[in-house]
Design goal:
Number of strands: 9
CATH class of the largest domain: Alpha Beta
Order of helices and strands: EEEEEEHHEEHEH
CATH superfamily of the largest domain: Fe-S cluster assembly (FSCA)
CATH topology of the largest domain: GMP Synthetase, Chain A, domain 3
Shape: globular
Number of domains: 2
Strand content: 25-35%
Distance between the termini: 24 Å
Largest sheet: 6 strands, antiparallel
Protein name: Putative Fe-S cluster assembly protein SufT
Structural class: alpha+beta
Pfam families: FeS_assembly_P
Number of helices: 4
CATH architecture of the largest domain: 2-Layer Sandwich
Length: 180
Amino acid sequence: MRGVTAMLEREVPATIIPSGDRVVLPEGAELRVMQTLGGNITVQDPYGQLFRIDEKDGAALGAEYAPQEKAAGDASAFHEEQVWEQLRTVYDPEIPVNIVELGLVYACKAEPLPEGGQRVDIQMTLTAPGCGMGPVLVDDVRTKVGSVPGVKEANVELVWDPPWDQGRMTDVARLQLGWM
């Protein structure tokens, strides 16, 4: 999908990358689709500015970008690996690598709640402390982890210690970025 040009069929709220500011892109805007990983769509306008369009608004770019129906799971069959699977669907909108492979997830712990279900606590960081996309990524993590069957609470804490560096990336990430 990278580099495909699409025209917005309606106005769409979007997030400016990397500032994290919210804007509305006008109907008829011509945009180049840069990445469609994790459900959200990163687009570029003719001036080179990047924007992230939320998955729920993807259809405004055309039917091929419409959100896919997700199957409901059995809440009684919770497995922590399901949380990690969801974390692997969260992508930095500028880097085509998920946050797990980038080494941004420092801790993930699930605990049963007395009333049933699970509370999942996640500590994560960003590639740069000043990244305006931090709140967007934290919200993505909270939403996707909260969608795991059996999860009743998803708490995400943004931490800065230890600071992230490229040494935290997996070999998979390095390979995806052409660094190996």
